[in-house]
Amino acid sequence: MNARSLRVLEFPRILERLAEYCSFALSRERSLALTPSTDEAEVRRRQRETSEARFLLEGRPEISLGATVDLRPHLKKAAIRLPLTPVELLQVGDTLQAAWALRRPLHLARQQVPTLAEIATHLVRADPSALVEAIRRSIGERGEVLDAASPRLAAVRRELGEAQGQLLARLQRMIASPEVGAFLQEPLITQRGGRYVLPLKAEFKGRIPAVVHDQSTSGATLFVEPLAVLELNNRWRELQLEEEREVQRVLQELTAQVGERHEEIAAILEALARLDLALAKAKYSRALSGVEPIGVPFRPASRGELAHPGGTLRLRGARHPLLPPERTVPIDLYLSEEIFILIITGPNTGGKTVTLKTAGLLAAMAQSGLHIPAEEGSALSIFEGIYADIGEEQSIEQNLSTFSSHLTQIVDLLGRAGKRCLVLLDELGAGTDPLEGSALARAILEHLRQRGITTLVATHYTELKAYAQITPGVENASLEFDVETLSPTYQLTIGLPGRSNALSIASRLGLDAAIVQRAGELLTPQDRQAETYLEEIQKARQQALQARRQAESALAQARAIQREAEERLRELERSRAEILNESRRSAREELMRVRAELRQLMQEPRREVRSRAEIEASLAQLESALAPLRPSAEGAVELSVGDPVWVRGLERGGELLALLDDRKAEVQVGGYRVVLDRDDLEPAPATPRAPVEGISFHSASASRPPDELHVRGERAE
C-alpha cells in the first residue's frame, strides 16, 4: 500500500486515535503500525475480530486486559540471568494471572466470538498458578520480599531484629548515663554509613572512645560510633548483608522460573496484544458509530471497449472519521456496475476534497480491519492499492511548482496503479493554463478509463463535465451550494454536474448588477443554456426530494398508527382471553362441587333411592355447571384426526380417531374407544394435566335390592 497516499489521506491520524483506546504497550505499537491488507482472507479475519470484540463489549463491558504489563524488558533481563526486581516479578505474576482470567470468558463465549476464542487459546497453555503463587508468596503488594520467601530469610531477619534490639538498647543506656549524655548535642540515635551513631559535641571529641563517621555542616557536631557498641554494630551490619544476599538469591530463583517460560510468556504477550488491539478497534468503532463494511470480491473484468474493473464502492451515510460528528454531513457515494470513474464538481470549499478523502480513508480503514463511519449495507471491494494526489505538497527543495508537484505524483501513480486499485485525484490539471490543463486532465482520465481503474476526480473544468456526460463508464457528481446563504450544503448528488454559481455569488455579495449582467452576456449561448438546464434540474430534484420526505413522513405516521391499532387489538384479545379463562375457572369449580355432592350420594348404598324429580334436579344442576365450559361454535378450535385432545368431563387426555356426523367424535381414551360430543374436546395442553377422579362405574352396586326372594328348588338345610 502506497505510504505517501496514506499520509495524504491522513490515515496515520486514524491510527493515533485507535492507539488511544489501547491499554497495552505492545498493542499500541501494533495499532500505530497497522496498514491496509490486500489479502481478502486477512481482511475478513481482521473485520471478524473487530465485530466480535464489539459484540463482546456490548454484552460484557467489564472485559479488559486488567493489570497486564508489557513484559518484553523483563524477558530480556531474564534471558541474560539478570535478577528481576520485586516490582517486575509482581508485574509478571499479575500479567499471567490476568491472561489466565481472560481466557475463561472468551472460551465460554466461543460460539459467538470464535476468532477471539482462538486467539485466547494462546494466552496460557499451562496453568500459571504455581509460578504466580511462588511470586505472591515471596513478594508483598508493596514490592517487598516477604519472610515466607525462604526459611533462611525468615531466620536471618529474626536474628537481625534481635541484634538491632540489643544495639539500640545499649545505645539508649549510654545516652541516659551522665558519663555520655552530658557530651551529646542532643539525646538521639541516628545512622551514618549504615551504622548507628550518636551526635557528639565537637568540643568534647575524645571524651568518649568512639569512631567518627561524619560531622555536621557547621562542624559543631560529630557523629560517632562508641567502641562499646562496635561489635554489636558489626553483627547487625553482617546480618543485613546476609539478608541482602538471601533476598537476591530468592529473586534470582524466581527470575530463573520466569526465564524457563520465556517462549510461553512471549506467546502470551502476542495474544494479549492481538486481543487488546481487537478491543481497541471495537471501542473506536463504538465511538464512530461504525459498522462492518460488506466485503465484495472483484467481479471478472468486462471485455470490449468498456473495461470495467469489477470493483464495488457503495457508501451509505458515510462520514469523514476525523471531522466532528456534529459538523459532518453524511454522503451517499456509490459506483454502479456500469460506472467506475466519478467526476465531482462544485464550488470551492464545497466538500470535494473531503469527499475524496472520505472514500479513500474508509477504504483504507476497511482493509485494516476497522469499522467505518457509515450506515449498514455499505460495501467495498478490497483494493490492491490506494493512490491519492490530494492537496498541495509543493517541494521548495526540488524547486517544483504546484503544477509540477501534482504532475510528478500523477506520473508515479500511473506507473503503479493497476486494474484493482483506487485512484483519487484532486483538482486534476490545475495550476497551469486552463485550456491545456483541461486537455491534459481529460487525456489522463481517458488513460485511466482504458486501463479500467476505479477513479474519483475533483475538478472545476466544464470540459470534464461534458466528457462524463457522453462517456460510458464515467459519471458526473456534484456538491450542492445554497445561493441564499452563500454556503455549501455538502450534499453529494450523483448523476448531475456541479455549478460554479460564480455569477449568483457575485450578485449576492453586492457586485454591481450591470457587471453581473455583462458577465452573463459574455457566456456562450451553450453555457447559458447548460446553466439554465442545471438550475431547473436541481430545482426539480429538490422538489422531488421534498415530496419524498413528505411521503416517507406520512408512511412513518401511518405505520405508527397501524402499530398502535395492532397493539390495542392485542390488548383487547388478552383481556377477552382473561375473562374467558376466569369464567371457565369458576365453572370448573362449580362442576367440581356438584361432582363431590354426587360422589357423596353414590357412596351411601343403603340410602333409599331418591325420587325421580330429585335426580332430574341434580342432573339439571350438573348440566348448568357444564355449560360455561363448552366453547361457543364461533370460538371452537378446529381439531384434526390424530391430534392429542383433552376430554372435558372425564378430565383425561386422549387421541382423536375420527370426526363423525352430528358433532360427534371418536376418541381413544386409555384402553377404550369412546364416542363423545365435539364440544367436550379441546386441544391437549402443552403441560399434561393430572387426571381428576370422576364417577366410577362400579358404584352402580348402590341400586335398591329386589322385593322378592326365589326359593324354588332349594333345600331347607
Describe the structure.
By secondary structure, the protein is an alpha/beta fold. It is built from 20 helices and 19 strands. Strands 10-11-12-8-13-14 form a 6-stranded mixed β-sheet, with helices on both faces. It has a 5-stranded antiparallel β-sheet with strand order 18-17-16-15-19, with no helix packed on it. It has a 4-stranded antiparallel β-sheet with strand order 1-2-4-3. Helix 2 runs antiparallel to helix 3 and helix 5 packs antiparallel against helix 12. The relative contact order is 0.07. About 2% of the residues have low confidence.
Please sum up the structure shown.
The protein has about 725 residues and is α/β, with parallel strands linked by helices. About 50% of the residues lie in helices and about 15% in strands.
Keyphrases for this structure?
14% strand; Rossmann fold; 717 residues; 5-stranded antiparallel sheet
Tell me what portion of residues adopts beta-strand conformation.
5-15%
How much is the radius of gyration in Å? 47 Å
SS content category = alpha/beta
Name of the CATH class of the largest domain: Alpha Beta
Q: How many structural domains can be distinguished in the coordinates?
A: 4
Mean pLDDT: 81
**CATH fold-level assignment of the largest domain:** Rossmann fold
